[in-house]
């Protein structure tokens, strides 16, 4: 089966919501993946910040295989050990006084958060505040809170009063939040907007505004959590604790799992019967997540992520190319800012040369490699990048002429 045959079958049998991806992958080993035609790529996107241990990590393979052979599924009619263990581990990494609900994806983690804060809100609270250009998922509740107009607007109205303020703007947030606000939903750094950090002190400001008004502070760390920034969680670097935290992506290392964590009074805000998920807390997904957490500890991947992130940033900063305006981000979560809307060309030309990166916005390339990436692998990418940028520029010029 060639890539082009597979793409044709994809187009004929899958809905057109994704378009047809250009590359058909079949195998992954560490930070390398292979397409069905045998081409090798250095994976610098990790399935959108998901495959944090790379591909085929022995600890993950062993945990998943063992759990599948032991007990693959229980439903929530029964207790099982992996789910309890994983909840305990997350609570301990988060510093205690918290409880966890497990979902199967990021958007479901946010749906749980949405119901949780509604349940916890006193009478008279009726609206939400979220950040412009933010992303919280594609199901209706999360989508209502998503600030990317192009993906939200075709599917409204959502039956929720959501007010958007610019990302990182504390004055606008203070203006928008009063004692009838249910909750504020934010990301620390906006991932889908192009790895856009908020100004220093932003999370502390959100905390203060929520404390002053009694609105719940919901922090979406679905992309930033589980080591991506070099800390277990981005909010820990800021020294700020939200009321509700959502996680997914990197947590399962490639297996589908999401989590909604409630702190303090939000730990116990759900009543019995308020929420549920047949697959949520599935033993295989929990075993995978435990293997991810164990491996991050055993291989000292937080420190490694910090060091590799600094190396990547330094090497990117040293590149002088007319198409590259600079880089931003933290840890192994970076954006290349381009001087023109040529990200699609950069993504394509990088792939042609064996590098998978992501055109997250027309002028922005996202890089989120496995946390196990080596200095040598970063070096190979950096050395090829000027050629990739040259080729992208040439492709853009050619496109404009035709
Ligand atoms: C990816 C993402 C989501 C949605 O996660 P899914 O698993 O795709 O539903 C929500 N919030 C943020 C910040 C994300 O990056």
TrEMBL record:
<feature type="binding site">
    <location>
        <position position="277"/>
    </location>
    <ligand>
        <name>N(2)-acetyl-L-ornithine</name>
    </ligand>
</feature>
<dbReference type="InterPro" id="IPR015421">
    <property type="entry name" value="PyrdxlP-dep_Trfase_major"/>
</dbReference>
<feature type="modified residue" description="N6-(pyridoxal phosphate)lysine">
    <location>
        <position position="249"/>
    </location>
</feature>
<dbReference type="GO" id="GO:0003992">
    <property type="term" value="F:N2-acetyl-L-ornithine:2-oxoglutarate 5-aminotransferase activity"/>
</dbReference>
<dbReference type="InterPro" id="IPR049704">
    <property type="entry name" value="Aminotrans_3_PPA_site"/>
</dbReference>
<dbReference type="InterPro" id="IPR005814">
    <property type="entry name" value="Aminotrans_3"/>
</dbReference>
<feature type="binding site">
    <location>
        <position position="278"/>
    </location>
    <ligand>
        <name>pyridoxal 5'-phosphate</name>
    </ligand>
</feature>
<keyword id="KW-0055">Arginine biosynthesis</keyword>
<comment type="similarity">
    <text>Belongs to the class-III pyridoxal-phosphate-dependent aminotransferase family. ArgD subfamily.</text>
</comment>
<comment type="subunit">
    <text>Homodimer.</text>
</comment>
<keyword id="KW-0808">Transferase</keyword>
<keyword id="KW-0028">Amino-acid biosynthesis</keyword>
<keyword id="KW-0963">Cytoplasm</keyword>
<dbReference type="InterPro" id="IPR015422">
    <property type="entry name" value="PyrdxlP-dep_Trfase_small"/>
</dbReference>
<keyword id="KW-0663">Pyridoxal phosphate</keyword>
<dbReference type="InterPro" id="IPR015424">
    <property type="entry name" value="PyrdxlP-dep_Trfase"/>
</dbReference>
<dbReference type="InterPro" id="IPR050103">
    <property type="entry name" value="Class-III_PLP-dep_AT"/>
</dbReference>
<feature type="binding site">
    <location>
        <position position="138"/>
    </location>
    <ligand>
        <name>N(2)-acetyl-L-ornithine</name>
    </ligand>
</feature>
<protein>
    <recommendedName>
        <fullName>Acetylornithine aminotransferase</fullName>
        <ecNumber>2.6.1.11</ecNumber>
    </recommendedName>
</protein>
<dbReference type="Pfam" id="PF00202">
    <property type="entry name" value="Aminotran_3"/>
</dbReference>
<feature type="binding site">
    <location>
        <begin position="220"/>
        <end position="223"/>
    </location>
    <ligand>
        <name>pyridoxal 5'-phosphate</name>
    </ligand>
</feature>
<feature type="binding site">
    <location>
        <position position="135"/>
    </location>
    <ligand>
        <name>pyridoxal 5'-phosphate</name>
    </ligand>
</feature>
<dbReference type="InterPro" id="IPR004636">
    <property type="entry name" value="AcOrn/SuccOrn_fam"/>
</dbReference>
<comment type="pathway">
    <text>Amino-acid biosynthesis; L-arginine biosynthesis; N(2)-acetyl-L-ornithine from L-glutamate: step 4/4.</text>
</comment>
<keyword id="KW-0032">Aminotransferase</keyword>
<feature type="binding site">
    <location>
        <begin position="106"/>
        <end position="107"/>
    </location>
    <ligand>
        <name>pyridoxal 5'-phosphate</name>
    </ligand>
</feature>
């Amino acid at each position: 089966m060639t890539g082009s045959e597979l793409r044709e079958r994809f187009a004929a049998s899958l809905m057109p919501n994704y378009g047809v991806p250009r590359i058909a992958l079949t195998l992954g080993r560490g930070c390398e993946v292979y397409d069905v035609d045998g081409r090798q790529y250095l994976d610098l996107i990790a399935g959108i910040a998901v495959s944090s241990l790379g591909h085929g990590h022995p600890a993950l393979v062993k945990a998943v295989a063992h759990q599948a052979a032991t007990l693959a599924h229980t439903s929530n009619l029964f207790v099982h050990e992996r789910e309890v263990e994983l909840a305990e581990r997350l609570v301990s990494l988060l510093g205690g006084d918290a409880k966890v609900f497990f979902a199967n994806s990021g958007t479901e983690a946010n749906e749980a958060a949405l119901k949780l804060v509604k349940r916890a809100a006193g009478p008279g609270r009726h609206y939400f505040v979220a950040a412009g250009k933010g992303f919280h998922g594609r199901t209706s509740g999360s989508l209502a809170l998503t600030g990317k107009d192009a993906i939200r607007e075709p599917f409204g109205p959502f039956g929720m009063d959501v007010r958007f303020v610019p990302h990182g703007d504390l004055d606008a947030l203070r203006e928008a939040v009063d004692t009838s606000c249910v909750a504020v939903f934010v990301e620390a750094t906006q991932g889908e907007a192009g790895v856009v950090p908020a100004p220093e002190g932003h999370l502390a400001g959100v905390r203060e505004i929520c404390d002053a008004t009694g609105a719940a502070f919901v922090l979406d760390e679905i992309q930033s959590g589980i080591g991506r920034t070099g800390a277990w969680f981005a909010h820990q670097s800021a020294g700020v604790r939200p009321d509700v935290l959502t996680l997914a992506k990197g947590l399962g290392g490639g297996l589908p799992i999401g989590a909604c964590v409630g702190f303090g009074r939000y730990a116990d805000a759900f009543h019995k019967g308020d929420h549920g998920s047949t697959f949520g807390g599935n033993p295989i997904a929990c075993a995978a997540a435990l293997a991810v957490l164990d491996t991050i500890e055993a291989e000292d991947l937080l420190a490694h992520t910090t060091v590799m992130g600094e190396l990547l940033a330094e090497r990117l900063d040293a590149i002088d190319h007319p198409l590259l305006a600079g880089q931003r981000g933290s840890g192994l979560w970076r954006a290349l800012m381009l001087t023109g809307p040529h990200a699609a060309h950069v993504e394509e030309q990088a792939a042609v040369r064996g590098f998978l990166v992501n055109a997250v916005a027309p002028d922005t390339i996202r890089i989120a490699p496995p946390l196990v990436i080596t200095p040598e692998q970063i070096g190979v990418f950096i050395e090829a990048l000027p050629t990739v940028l040259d080729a992208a520029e040439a492709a853009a010029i050619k496109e404009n002429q035709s």
